[in-house]
Amino acid sequence: MEFESLPSFSSIPPPFPIIGPPFPPPPSAVFHPFHHNPSLFFMMDDQRSMSLLQFMADEGLVPSPEEEEKRKNVIHKLKQIISLWIKKVACQHRLPKHLVAVTSATILTYGSYGLGVHSSESDIDALCVAPFFATLAEDFFVVLNDILTRRTEVSEIHCVKSAKVPLMRFKFDGISIDLPFAQLKVLYVPENVDVLDPFFMRNIDDTSWKSLSGVRANKQILQLVPNIENFQAMLRCLKLWAKRRGVYGTLLGYLGGIHLTILAAYVCQRYPDATLNSLIMNFFRTFAFWPWPTPVMLHEGMFLRPVDVVETRFFMPILLPHSPHVCCHSNITKSTFYRIRAELLRGHNMTRDLSKPDFIWDYVFEAFPYLKRYPEFVKIYLSTPNQNELGDWVGWVKSRFRSLLLILEGMQGFCDPNPTEYVDKEKAEPNVVFYWGLLPGKSNSMDKVLVEGEFMKIIGNGFEGGSPGRMELSIVSASQLPKNAQTEEGEGASKGRKTCWKPIDNDEKGNMVCSQPQLLPHCLIGNVPPNGEAAECLSSSG
Ligand SMILES: Nc1ncnc2c1ncn2[C@@H]1O[C@H](COP(=O)(O)OP(=O)(O)OP(=O)(O)O)[C@@H](O)[C@H]1O
Ligand SMILES: [Mg+2]
Ligand SMILES: [Mg+2]
Questions:
Q1: Which residue among 82, 88, 163, 408 has its CA within the 20 to 30 Å range from the CA of 417?
Q2: Model confidence pTM above 0.80
Q3: What region holds the Poly(A) polymerase nucleotidyltransferase domain (predicted)?
């Protein structure tokens, strides 16, 4: 396999063999192999869209009506709790009775749930929006925490206080909730308060502004995309694709939900009348050839702050759609950048030709074959004495993974941080194991003790949980991977996986905000015809 030179970024030595033909210049128009027969193009395009909808249904990308109902119920109950809480807080702040009577707070959902692209495993990102007198430190993190803790529906509650976006994280009726806080300078917060209205945004503090960012981003994106149903279906597919191909998860240096959301919205904007199939084709074509680090932005002429331009971590700058137009936080490194690009190119190669007689979507969404690709792996073993401490420990270490990746890249040139979390069932203690792919013949040059020591220093500082757990590094060959890691490869990999923690924001102290990744949808997908068509063959499949 030979590495093909990439357009732009030529200063970075290619660490990874890109599979497939050399990057051709991007086609100037929508790829269209049926110039002589447009009706055949539309027929094939429709058929592929149909079979993709069928694929989504088969994959269970659409939560059942019961699941939807459960989520709505949870949000309804949360709103009730917030309403009672704010009255209590108003009394504690000794507001006059007539003001207590009219004051209100609300819950605004955002993230994948707010966009209607969540799965049954998804968390709900829910912002608590409170009036001027409610404080973050006392009223939110103490009073509301106390109310929530007493509820029988609530479990596993903990506070992430010093992150850029401070929040409480808990399960409500078994559904994970990320609950940040924002304070507006008003007495009465309408149930569906418009966070783009300058009236509500005036004089708000910095933390509240950052907390509102997700809601504002969602709102803008939904205003900018021409066909929301197509956008939702496309985004669900892309999330599944990225997960299956091992390129989903901000903490591991890959794409997060927000990045894929903006990339999908960009393509939807440019192809307002495209079918689902055409949107996916255009997504791969657009971003396989994107001249990174040119930023992707949804508004023309967005202003990029100089600090973002020079920030080397922005290999793939993707700008938030609202002011100030800053880049989405990203942990992309040299290795993960090349992996993502290789996957985009693979996607393009697989989908570009509508006339391929044996095309099937299953190939596009096939799990990335780590065992075939890498002879050796860095094994990262994390454990704690008790199960209930494991989540915090693993979440903390993962929030520092970028540093480990950079150390390994420095020594090895390339490392592929597989986001999948495995469990070593032979060990009695609760544990989570990661296997990161290494290129052949490179591991000999790695001083394992040095890497472990360096990384221990990094994770030894700033852990907010109880007592830190254990972390061990080792090099293992592909054949030493546990059975479940080996068999999972072939078949639909990411099903039923342990979920990843991802940062909304990391602060300097390393406090992180985490959430569970999810796929899946919430509206569309009506009557889907049976999968009638043929398959695809892609010599370059991974
Ligand atoms: N790296 C980031 N930069 C800017 N905003 C972010 C970032 N990560 C998360 N957010 C904000 O927080 C919201 C929720 O993030 P979360 O990690 O839960 O992703 P998501 O889009 O909901 O996808 P998923 O389905 O994986 O949960 C995002 O929609 C976005 O508004
Ligand atoms: Mg989410
Ligand atoms: Mg979340």
A1: 163
A2: yes
A3: 45-225
Is the torsion defined by CA of 281, 282, 284, 288 positive or negative?
A: positive
Domains and CATH numbers, the chain: 65-212 (3.30.460.10), 225-364 (1.10.1410.10), 374-487 (3.30.70.590)
User: Which H helix or E strand runs over 126?
Assistant: strand 124-130
Please tell me the distance from the alpha carbon of residue 166 to that of residue 136, in angstroms, as a whole number: 9
- Closest CA relative to residue 536, chosen from 362, 374, 283, 417: 362
* Residue 330 tokens, joined: 């990203």
Distance (Å, rounded) from C-alpha 65 to C-alpha 299? 36
- Cα 450 from chain centre: 31
Mean pLDDT on 230-245: 96
- Dihedral sign for Cα 483, 489, 495, 499, please: positive
Please tell me the distance from the alpha carbon of residue 211 to that of residue 179, in angstroms, as a whole number: 10
pLDDT(518) > 80: no
- Residue 257 Cβ contacting ligand 1 at under 6 Å: yes
Q: Which atom of ligand 1 is nearest to the CA of 503?
A: 8
pLDDT in tens, 415-466: 999 999 999 988 999 999 999 999 987 777 788 899 999 999 999 988 877 7
Is there an atom of ligand 1 within 6 Å of 518 CB? yes
DSSP 7: S
Q: Which segment of 63-77, 343-357, 528-542 scores lowest on mean pLDDT?
A: 528-542
Confidence (pLDDT) at 238: 97
Report strand pairing: 431-438 vs 416-417: antiparallel
Q: How confident is the model at residue 24 (pLDDT cuts 50, 70, 90)?
A: very low
Asked if residue 293 has a cis previous peptide bond (ω within 30° of 0), the answer is: yes
Size of the chain, expressed as the number of residues it contains: 542
Residue whose tokens read 């924002």: 182
- Expressed in angstroms and rounded, the spacing between residue 176 Cα and the centre of ligand 2 is 9
Judge if the beta carbon of residue 325 lies within 6 A of ligand 1. Answer: no
Rounded CA-CA distance 143/512 in Å is 22
First to last CA, the chain: 12
Cis peptide before 324 (omega within 30 of 0): yes
- Position 90 confidence tier, pLDDT thresholds 50, 70, 90: very high
What value does the mean pLDDT take over residues 60-69? Answer: 92
**Ligand 1 in contact with 176 (CB < 6 A)?**
no
How many A from CA of 177 to the centre of ligand 1? 13
Distance CA 326, CA 320 (A): 6
> How does pLDDT run across 147-172, given as a tens digit for each residue?
999 999 999 888 888 788 999 999 99
Choose which residue among 125, 179, 250 to substitute to test ligand 1 binding: the one with the highest number of ligand atoms within 8 A of its C-beta.
125
* Residue 258 CB–ligand 1 contact under 6 Å: yes
Are 393 and 384 a contacting pair, CB within 8 Å? yes
Q: Supply the residue whose CA is at minimum distance from atom 27 of ligand 1.
A: 517
The most confident of the ranges 19-23, 63-67, 126-130, 491-495 is 126-130
